[in-house]
Amino acid sequence: MHPILIKNARIVNEGTITEGDVLILNDVIAEIASTISAKTGDTKIIDADGHYLIPGMIDDQVHFREPGLTHKATIETESRAAVAGGITSFIEMPNTVPQATTIELLEDKFAIAKQTSWANYSFMFGGTNNNIDEILKVDPKKVAGLKLFLGSSTGNMLVDDPKTIEEIFSKTKLLISTHCEDEATIKKNMAAAIEKYGEDIPISEHPKIRSAEACYISSSKAIELAKKTGARLHVFHLSTEKETHLFKNKLPLHKKKITAEVCVHHLWFTDEDYAEKGTHIKWNPAVKSEADREGLWKALNDDRIDIIATDHAPHTLEEKSNVYTKAPSGGPLVQHAIEALFEMHRRGRISVEKIVQKTAHNPAILFEIENRGFIKEGYKADLVLINPNAPWTVTKENIAYKCGWSPFEGTTFTSRITHTFVNGVLAYENGKMVTRTHGERLTFAR
């Protein structure tokens, strides 16, 4: 690999923005300084021209649909889209077909990623009501963590036996990530909606069916159990203002035992957008009110919420275009998450430093990922250059997802990713994939 020298960048790292140069040798950041001269004639020089240089996003929650659901997406197609969107590492969920609920099936997914992933990767092991023995076999140094669906699951992955849940919380050494929605509350609300509307339920009922109360009941129970057992709990995709008060900001992240995540779509959309977007913004948990979105922003900025993720979960346009009761929940987001966050920065919602903290630094700290997530000498060169003044519009022609659509279609972003480096390799440049990268399996300092 030829050395790469990035000149004249606005380097965003650990709460500061400094102007300078970064030298990449092989797969690592070799030097950071106010000015660096090329040391060899074969050095590739990239003039950043004052653009932001940030560590690549580590997305702690994606669904790349492989194996078994590859008509929607594959690890190759979605990791490629992720790299185009400045996401250089991802953690994928276990609810594929078959579900990753045994060590053997989990390693099958790692084998696929080793051959096809453009980005660095890890996978969550899936918990069920009856696989505690398999859970206890998982090596915390080699796997991102354990995913428990405490509501809204496919197949047999709904974990709803209280004794099993407590046993898992008590015995596992893995970081436990949870989807928290109370199934009994949702079923009650759904029955009431069907009685009122029949099968033609308006999409606007979605945040009432999958209500704020359903989220709060489940999240509060999980937190209570984590406190009781001492388990390491990470609650995925908060969607309500009420839930944010369950979390604290009194400790530095590396000392927290209970942490939280928010996703880009819950920061961008509200229930007013259902009228235009319909089932294309049907997610679980549901996009809720403006007051909920405001509460999420407040908790994110005051550090009660620790991470921003995507919950990238593509379905085909045909599937998403069904009536409410048949349209699946989820949507594609990895290609546009960072640029959406920079648009929110432009609107005064969040600082660039905070974006980097929540998308790169904190995932690395929270999951104890080795040598990634920061712009530091000796760290892996997973880097992204962003031009903050290069407006562009999301159209079908520039969407990289296999499913071919985006909830952001028609949206104009002011900022644009110009370069993405994965392990020191320039993978994406000015709208094109330029080098076929091969992501590495993430390792954990646990």
Task: Give the tags.
nine-stranded mixed sheet, 446 residues, 14 helices, 19 strands, TIM Barrel, alpha/beta, eight-stranded parallel sheet
3D architecture notes:
- This protein is an alpha/beta fold and 446 residues long.
- The protein has a domain at 56-366: Alpha-Beta Barrel (TIM Barrel).
- Helices cover 29% and strands 22% of the residues.
- The chain has helices spanning 75-84, 103-116, 132-135, 162-171, 183-197, 206-209, 212-229, 241-244, 264-268, 274-277, 290-301, 317-320, 337-346, 352-366; strands spanning 4-13, 16-25, 28-33, 44-47, 52-55, 57-62, 87-92, 120-126, 145-149, 176-179, 233-235, 258-263, 307-309, 383-387, 392-393, 412-413, 416-422, 425-429, 432-433.
- Strands 1, 2, 3, 4, 5, 14, 17, 18 and 19 form a nine-stranded mixed sheet that branches. It has an eight-stranded parallel sheet with strand order 6-7-8-9-10-11-12-13.
- Strand 7, helix 2 (103-116) and strand 8 (120-126) form a beta-alpha-beta unit.
- The two termini are 31 Å apart.
Quick one: CATH class of the domain at 56-366? Answer: Alpha Beta
**Global Rg:** 21 Å
Computed structural class: alpha/beta
Query: Shape from CA axes?
Result: globular
CATH superfamily of the domain at 56-366: Metal-dependent hydrolases
What helical percentage do the residues reach? Answer: 25-40%
Report the β-strand fraction as a percent range: 15-25%
CATH architecture of the domain at 56-366: Alpha-Beta Barrel
Low-confidence stretches: none
CATH topology of the domain at 56-366: TIM Barrel
Distance between the termini: 31 Å
Instruction: Tell me about the largest β-sheet.
Output: 9 strands, mixed
How many extended strands? 19
Mean pLDDT value: 97
Give the count of helical stretches. 14
